[in-house]
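Homework-ish question, so no full write-ups if that breaks the rules, but can someone show me the predicted structure for this set?
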Amino acid sequence: MSPIDEEQLQGLQGVRDFLRIRTSYDVLPLSFRLIVLDNDLLIRKSLNILIQNNIVSAPLWDSHNGRFAGLLTSTDFINVIQYYNQFPEQIDNVEKFRLSSLRDIEKAINVQTLETVSVHPGRPLYEACSRMLRSRARRIPLVDVDDETGRETVVSVITQYRILKFIAVNTEQHTSLMKKTIREINLGTYTDLATCKMTDSVLDVINSMVVRNISAVPVIDKNNVVLNVFEAVDVIPCIKGGAYEELKSTVGEALAQRPEDFPGIYTCQEDDRLDSIFQTVRQSRVHRLVVIDDDWHLKGILSLSDILKYVLFHGEEGEYFPQT
Ligand code: ADP
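A: Not a homework solution, just the prediction itself:
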């Protein structure tokens, strides 16, 4: 094994050890607010609550059984849009749908139902990460059980974004050892990329996100030059006020509705080393990196789950999806 390989493995091991001694509690800020939505709420109203509170997801609560009932995310609204399109005759009923109907909507449009995974906040962070990656969720609720009543409480939700940030900020001594380039370790997706044009309809892009279970599609011009990235959360302003059936906007129009504090897109190149990717994650609000060449041509996409999977499981093939 070359010295650079050895160092890389040493860095990976350092991060894994760190994730095993830290808990999900450690990732949470000292003070935060959590908005939990009752599962009986109308889907239409839940959308307004997300928009008013400037959040893009919320845990759901089953008040009949006093139990955590899953997580509402922009994917659920995308599914409702798909449902509208497949069953236009149901339009009047959709207005009356409650959050508890989301699973039925998934079944009706034939998308894979996400498991309602959660993790105890006091468990090692490694467990939260591996559960999240295993279920392909991008965020995981932390659910505690009250010793006296035996009732569940949702403490918070942690995201892949937050965990990667936590790693980047706290383990620089380990991540700085990762000097292999993303090309060398084959990190990211480079073939069969889902892309769109500014003039494409939002509906078409939504369709490809549902079919491929991805949450971002690079926007390119006719020469394959990257102009922007359309993200699942960009759908929310488009359906504000419940206008699902009027969702005719183009990608360009939808992107124009982004909030002023939108962090922008991040790019990298195939010859960038993993330590420099971690530096970008440490310094910026990165939700994915678009891999480009010197002239901004699209080469690939590097998602947070690609990075986390590598960091957790590389070299431990047998443990790729460890049982926790
Ligand atoms: P995201 O939430 O950014 O879609 P995921 O972690 O869910 O990212 O991505 C799952 C897999 O799909 C990753 O391996 C990622 O590289 C790949 N991927 C993400 N976006 C695209 C895309 N537009 N086209 C092809 N593959 C993609």
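Now go work out the reasoning yourself. Hint: The pocket of adenosine-5'-diphosphate is lined by residues 138, 188-189, 193-194, 214-217, 288, 301, 303, 305-306 (CB under 6 Å).
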